[in-house]
Design goal:
- The protein has 3 helices and 21 strands.
- By secondary structure, it is mainly beta.
- A 7-stranded antiparallel β-sheet has the order 2-3-4-11-6-9-13, with no helix packed on it. A 6-stranded antiparallel β-sheet has the order 1-19-16-21-15-14, with no helix packed on it. It has a 3-stranded antiparallel β-sheet with strand order 8-7-10.
- The mean pLDDT is about 95.
């Protein structure tokens, strides 16, 4: 077992006071907590995200569209908590051509074209590369992604940050989000949220059985409630540890742990 080191990422849209057990040692809003990927799962990045304002409207390339020698960015979100009425934006309400989408990004009317979904704890979204997306305020989530930092901002609500409009238009899927990519976890037993092509993500509560062949090698464990231990050693909420399989994992009936596995190696 090895606990992953973290680093804090301050963002204009983050929170001055993140939810417990997380702490912000400074005055600048804290937006993300990254767990530095170990060599065993170097292709993945896992992070917690907390929002007090909306993220930019953005899109990521896939592996083929990314600059030579770099990965694309497929990702997924597991909603940990959300204020009443909190929303994310995924895809567009309807198909738009490149010129219309460019004009909407430039004049701000892109906000009216986004496909917004009200979210609650337990919602899970797969966000394939090319999906236009934005996380709204009042949300805490766990993100699993390809280990890539390529983000193309299409629109940023007038904030003075760099936009990447033409790159974003080049890689964006200019249509509606596939509803099949949104699921709702029950919060009990073993629940597999996504399998491939880059990562497998599941949650586990209680003494449920993990299917054979799942999480048998290098696995990242992220306790989401007290009552998770590995080999008898308690795992603290808000940490991420690398383990060799899950044989020594114990989860109380009222606890939950997220499991993440890299399945794109080789």
């Amino acid at each position: 077992m090895r606990q992953l080191p973290v680093h804090l990422v301050h963002k204009v849209w983050g929170r001055t006071e993140p939810p417990p057990p997380f702490e912000n040692p400074g005055e600048e809003p804290l937006g993300e907590i990254w767990f530095d990927p170990p060599p065993e799962v170097a292709g993945l990045l896992v992070k917690f995200i907390f929002t007090d304002a909306a993220l930019s409207v953005q899109v990521h390339p896939d592996d083929a569209q990314a600059p030579k020698g770099r990965r694309g960015k497929n990702e997924c979100w597991y909603i940990l908590d959300a204020e009443p009425g909190a929303t994310i934006a995924v895809g567009l309400k309807r198909e738009m051509d490149v010129d219309a989408l460019r004009a909407a990004a430039l004049d701000g009317s892109i906000e009216d074209h986004l496909g917004r979904i009200e979210v609650a704890r337990g919602d899970f979204f797969s966000i394939p590369a090319g999906t236009i997306h934005a996380i709204g305020p009042g949300i805490s989530l766990l993100e699993v992604q390809q280990n890539s930092d390529i983000t193309y901002r299409l629109y940023d609500y007038g904030r003075p940050r760099e936009l990447h409009l033409e790159d974003g238009l080049r890689v964006a899927t200019r249509g509606a989000y596939d509803a099949a990519l949104h699921t709702q976890a029950r919060g009990a037993g073993y629940e597999e949220l996504i399998e491939g092509p880059f990562f497998r993500v599941a949650t586990l509560s209680g003494a449920a059985t993990i299917p054979e062949g799942r999480f048998a090698g290098d696995v990242l464990l992220l306790p989401l409630a007290e009552g998770v231990s590995l080999g008898g050693a308690p795992l603290a909420v808000g940490t991420c540890v690398l383990a060799k399989g899950t044989q020594a994992l114990s989860v109380a009936s009222n606890a939950r742990v997220a499991l993440v596995e890299d399945i794109a190696r080789g």
